[in-house]
Amino acid sequence: MQVPYGLLILALALAPAAAGGCHLAPMGIAGGVGKLGDVSVAFGAADHALHPTAWQGPLRITTGSAPACTVSDEVAIVEAPVALGGGILYVPTYSGGNNRLYAVATKSCRVLWRSHPFTGPTRPGNGRLTIGGRRVPLDRQCHPAGMAGDGR
């Protein structure tokens, strides 16, 4: 089978974009601490000693040998799945019936973005997040496309 020349050129042109997209990796949490690569996150007190599903915060992030920093108190009552990509930690939170997803810079602990309130699960994927059934595309650096949210 021979591939048409035009199709081959198109595939070669699109390959770098596909290969260079954002890859989110889930961060496992054990004993109130998550670790992925050179990023370590202390999540604070858990809701249950043996089978935690939420952590109170505050989040303390250490990247490599840099000093730890503390994330704003607004990022509290964290639940899984937490994901990391491109130096950005995606942290799902809830309060009452409202969920929010925060994008936090791991080197500065600065909140880069937060979603509008939503209900339903958070699902990280390659090049996107799904929050409450709505897709949030991510750019190549793992930032939410257009940094849509509440103006951050």
Search tags:
152 residues, mainly beta, Lipocalin, 1 helix, 39% strand, disordered C terminus
Account of the 3D structure:
- The protein has about 150 residues and is mainly beta.
- The protein has a single domain, classed as Lipocalin.
- The chain contains one helix and 15 strands.
- It has one helix spanning about 5-20, and strands spanning about 25, 30, 35, 40, 55, 60-65, 70, 80, 80-85, 90-95, 100-105, 110-115, 120-125, 130, 135.
- The strands form four sheets. The protein has a five-stranded antiparallel sheet, with no helix packed on it.
- A hairpin with a 2-residue loop joins strand 9 and strand 10 (about 90-95).
- Residues about 5-20 and about 150 have low confidence and may be disordered.
Please describe the topology of this protein.
Layout (H helix, E strand, L loop, with lengths): L4 H15 L5 E3 L1 E2 L2 E4 L2 E4 L11 E2 L4 E4 L5 E2 L7 E2 L2 E4 L2 E8 L2 E8 L5 E4 L7 E4 L2 E4 L2 E4 L15
Antiparallel strand pairs: 1-9, 2-3, 3-4, 4-6, 5-8, 6-7, 9-10, 10-11, 11-12, 13-14, 14-15
